[in-house]
C-alpha cells in the first residue's frame, strides 16, 4: 500500500528530468575595443521627446548608400546596445521603401509608421544586436522648430542640379538613415556613398579614400547624429594644411561658389586663433563643404556652410566660419546632453567669434561689454533666459549672446590667463563626452577653486540682464 506514493514520486521525478531546462538569462555583451568609444547613456529630451529613444545606444552606423538623382538607396547597418528590455526596436526614420530587415542575420518584420522605424524583434538590456535595414526612396525634409531668419526645412535636401545637402539640428538625420536622432547618443561611423560619374560625395569624419565614384569616410571619434553631414554634387576639392600639419579639405562647386574660396582658404588662420585659446584641434582632419543653404553648421570634421548669400561680405562670412570651427571644441568634442543645454555650445562659439571680431577691429573690453549687455537685455525680454529655451524657438539668439555675456563676466572675474586655462582644461580633459549645466558648474568651481555657481545660474535663468 505504501508503493503508490513512491511510484507517483518517481514519475514526477522522471517527468522533471525530461522537461527542458529554463533558458538561461543571456549574459551582457561588452563592446569590442573598436566600438567602445561609441558607448553613450541616452536620455529622453525635455524639449523634443518625440525624437530619440533612450532605450537604445547605437554604437556604430555603417551606411552604404547610392545616389542617383531623385533616388537614395542602400543599407544602414547599426550596432546597438539596448539600455532596457523592449518588445520592439524603435528608431527615427522617414518613410522609405524597406527591403528585408534583419536582426543578427535573421529576417524580421519591420515598418515605417509616421517618422519611426518599428522593428518587430525584442531587445534585451546590454545584449548587443546588429540591425540591417535596406531601403530606397526619394528624400524629404522635416520642419525646423524655429523662427530664425535663416530657418529652413531640416534633413536631406535635393538641390536644383540634382545633388544633395543636409542641415539637421536639432534633428533631421532620420531623413536619410535610421537613427537614434538625439545628442545624448553618440556613435562611430563608416560611410560609403556611390554617386554618378563626375560627382563627389562629402560626409563627416575622416576621408577614407575613394574607388571610382564611391567615396568613404570614417569617424573614430563619437559623433551625435545632428553633427553628421552629406553633400553630393559636382564639387571641386582644395586641400591644405592647418596648424601642426592638420589635413584640411575645402569643397566648392565651380560656377556657384568661387567668391567664397578666398575665405575658405583662411581656415588655418581661424584654427590657429582657436588653438591658442583652447588647445589642439580635437579631430584628425577638418574642412568645409559649401551647400545651397542660408545657414551654417558645425558638422563634425567638415563644416557645412551655406553659399546662398544674397549680399556677400567676406568679414561677416569669415566670422561665421570661425564660429562653426569653434564648435568643433564646443559642441562636437563636448556635446550637450539634451537640447536644454544648447547654450553650452552656442555661448562658447559666440564668445570665440566675438573675441576674433574684437581682435580684428581693435574693440575695447568696455565696448564688447556694452555690445553684449545691450543684446542680452533685448533677447531676454523677447525670448527669455538662455537656460530655459522654448521648444518652438530652437537656436534663436538668446542661446548665443546671453551665455556669451556670462562667459565675458567669467573672463573678467578670472583674467585672461586663468580663463583660457579653464577653457582649455574643459575641452581637452572632457573630450568626446556629453555635458550639461551641472557638470559645467562643477568643473568651473573645482578648476578655479572659487564658487561661480550663483554667477552661472543667474546668467542662465534671470529674466533680465544680471547686474
What does the model show?
Its EC number is 3.4.11.2. InterPro entries: Aminopeptidase_N-like_N, Aminopeptidase_N-like_N_sf, Peptidase_M1, Peptidase_M1_aminopeptidases, Peptidase_M1_dom, Peptidase_M4/M1_CTD_sf. Residues 1-21 form the signal peptide. The structure is a single chain. The protein is built from 10 helices and 23 strands. The chain is 29% helix and 27% strand. It has helices at 3-18, 261-264, 267-278, 314-326, 343-360, 365-383, 398-414, 416-429, 437-448, 453-461, and strands at residues 56-68, 71-82, 89-92, 97-98, 102-103, 106-107, 110-113, 116-119, 129-137, 155-158, 164-167, 186-194, 200-203, 206-211, 214-224, 230-233, 236-241, 247-252, 286-291, 296-297, 303-306, 334-336, 433-435. It has 2 domains: 39-326, Immunoglobulin-like (Sandwich), CATH 2.60.40; 342-461, Neutral Protease, domain 2, CATH 1.10.390.10. The strands form 6 sheets. Strands 1, 2, 4, 5, 6, 9, 12, 14 and 15 form a 9-stranded mixed beta sheet that branches. The radius of gyration is 25 Å and the shape is globular. The longest helix is centred in the C-terminal third of the chain and has 19 residues, at 365-383. A hairpin with a 2-residue loop joins strand 14 (206-211) and strand 15. With 467 residues, the protein is an alpha+beta fold.
Amino acid at each position: 500500500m505504501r508503493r503508490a506514493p513512491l511510484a507517483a514520486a518517481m514519475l514526477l521525478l522522471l517527468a522533471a528530468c525530461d522537461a527542458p531546462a529554463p533558458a538561461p538569462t543571456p549574459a551582457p555583451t561588452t563592446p569590442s575595443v573598436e566600438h567602445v568609444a561609441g558607448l553613450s547613456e541616452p536620455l529622453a529630451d525635455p524639449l523634443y521627446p518625440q525624437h530619440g529613444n533612450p532605450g537604445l545606444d547605437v554604437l556604430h552606423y555603417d551606411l552604404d548608400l547610392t545616389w542617383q538623382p531623385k533616388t537614395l538607396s542602400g543599407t544602414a547597418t547599426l550596432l546597438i546596445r539596448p539600455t532596457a528590455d523592449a518588445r520592439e526596436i524603435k528608431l527615427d526614420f522617414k518613410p522609405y521603401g524597406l527591403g528585408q530587415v534583419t536582426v543578427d542575420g535573421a529576417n524580421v518584420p519591420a515598418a515605417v509608421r509616421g517618422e519611426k522605424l518599428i522593428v518587430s524583434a525584442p531587445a534585451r538590456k546590454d545584449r548587443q544586436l546588429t540591425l540591417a535595414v535596406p531601403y530606397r526612396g526619394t528624400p524629404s525634409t522635416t520642419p525646423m522648430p524655429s523662427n530664425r531668419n535663416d530657418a529652413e526645412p531640416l534633413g536631406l535636401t535635393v538641390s536644383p542640379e540634382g545633388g544633395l545637402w543636409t542641415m539637421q539640428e536639432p534633428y533631421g538625420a532620420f531623413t536619410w538613415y535610421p537613427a537614434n536622432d538625439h545628442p545624448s547618443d553618440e556613435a562611430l561611423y563608416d560611410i560609403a556613398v556611390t554617386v554618378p560619374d563626375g560627382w563627389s560625395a562629402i560626409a563627416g569624419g575622416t576621408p577614407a579614400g575613394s574607388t571610382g565614384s564611391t567615396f568613404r569616410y570614417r569617424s573614430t571619434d563619437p559623433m551625435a547624429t545632428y553633427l553628421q553631414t552629406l553633400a553630393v554634387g559636382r564639387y571641386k576639392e582644395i586641400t591644405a594644411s592647418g596648424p601642426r600639419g592638420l589635413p584640411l579639405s575645402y569643397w566648392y562647386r565651380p560656377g556657384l561658389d568661387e567668391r567664397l574660396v578666398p575665405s575658405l582658404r583662411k581656415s588655418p588662420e581661424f584654427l590657429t586663433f582657436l588653438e591658442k585659446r583652447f588647445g589642439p584641434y580635437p579631430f584628425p582632419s577638418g574642412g568645409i563643404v559649401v551647400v545651397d543653404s542660408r545657414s551654417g553648421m558645425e558638422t563634425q570634421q567638415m563644416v557645412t556652410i551655406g553659399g546662398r548669400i544674397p549680399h556677400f561680405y567676406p568679414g561677416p562670412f569669415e566670422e561665421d566660419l570661425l564660429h562653426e570651427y569653434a564648435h568643433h571644441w564646443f559642441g562636437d568634442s563636448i556635446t550637450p546632453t539634451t537640447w536644454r543645454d544648447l547654450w553650452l555650445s552656442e555661448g562658447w562659439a559666440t564668445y570665440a567669434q566675438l573675441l576674433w571680431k574684437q581682435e580684428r577691429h581693435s574693440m575695447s573690453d568696455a565696448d564688447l561689454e556694452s555690445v553684449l549687455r545691450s543684446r542680452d537685455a533685448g533677447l531676454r525680454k523677447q525670448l527669455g533666459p538662455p537656460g530655459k529655451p522654448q521648444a518652438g524657438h530652437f537656436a534663436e539668439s538668446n542661446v548665443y549672446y546671453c551665455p556669451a555675456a556670462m562667459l565675458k563676466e567669467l573672463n573678467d572675474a578670472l583674467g585672461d590667463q586663468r580663463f583660457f586655462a579653464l577653457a582649455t582644461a574643459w575641452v581637452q580633459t572632457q573630450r568626446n563626452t556629453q555635458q550639461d549645466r551641472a557638470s559645467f558648474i562643477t568643473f568651473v568651481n573645482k578648476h578655479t577653486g572659487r564658487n561661480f555657481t550663483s554667477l552661472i545660474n543667474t546668467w542662465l535663468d534671470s529674466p533680465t540682464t544680471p547686474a
